[in-house]
């Protein structure tokens, strides 16, 4: 699966994107975040506060319980404000 990181998430992880084979037990966005946190201190730092980093699955905003089955891309980004 292709993972894309934006803004300070990208800076903390140290790369803009990567393609990974996910374990079979990673079924939701929340599962993916939990798994990524265990991949190293850079991921733990990027996702250190639960619920802050937002996700999009195949370019559609997604909640933590969103299923990853059939998805080809997950993007992570910080909350945005507008004006």
From TrEMBL:
It comes from the Bacteria. This is Molybdenum cofactor biosynthesis protein MoaD. It comes from Methylobacterium aquaticum.
